[in-house]
Design goal:
The protein has about 150 residues and is α+β, with helices and mostly antiparallel strands. It has a single domain, classed as Gcn5-related N-acetyltransferase (GNAT) (Aminopeptidase), CATH 3.40.630.30. Helices cover about 35% and strands about 25% of the residues. It has a 5-stranded mixed β-sheet, with helices on both faces. α1 packs across α2. The N and C termini lie far apart (about 55 Å).
Length: about 150
């Protein structure tokens, strides 16, 4: 299977929104589109699509964060999100996307690549470990609404 990885363009908006819905189903389309617009406008964030025979089968988001928990260098390239269509999981697509992003980070001179996973997302934890990520810490975030 030949996988093509390319940066997501504005003309891909509807395709990306469909994949975004699958990954972030708890958010409204308006919220997802607003996030997509922030990525399009950002100089520190980008998104990449994996295609097979011209069909979008997954995507990954890349960011340059000022800081990432567990990493020693700053700034840090970071895997913000990754999603693969169910029919293409466990076929090396996530690996291809992550290796593409790692190459981008290496060419820019970075020595670390960060990511995070929710504590309850065991499948994503396994995927990260299979892709060579090492767990650095577990954190629970809190917030308090100020009125």
């Amino acid at each position: 299977m030949d996988v093509v990885i390319r940066e997501i363009r504005k003309s891909d908006r509807d395709i990306w929104l469909g994949m975004y819905r699958a990954l972030f189903s708890e958010y409204s389309d308006a919220a997802l589109m607003a996030e997509m617009d922030r990525i399009y406008k950002s100089g520190k964030r980008s998104a990449y699509m994996a295609e097979v025979d011209g069909a979008a089968i997954g995507f990954a988001e890349y960011a340059l964060r000022d800081y990432a928990n567990g990493c020693h260098s700053q700034p840090v390239p970071f895997l913000e999100g990754i999603w693969i269509h169910d029919d293409y999981r466990s076929q090396g697509i996530a690996r291809a996307l992550v290796e593409f992003l790692e190459g981008k980070a290496r060419r820019a001179g970075f020595k670390e690549f960060g990511s995070d996973v929710e504590l309850s997302n065991y499948p994503s934890q396994l995927m990260h470990e299979r892709l060579g990520f090492e767990q650095t810490e577990k954190v629970i975030f809190y917030r308090k609404v100020l009125e």
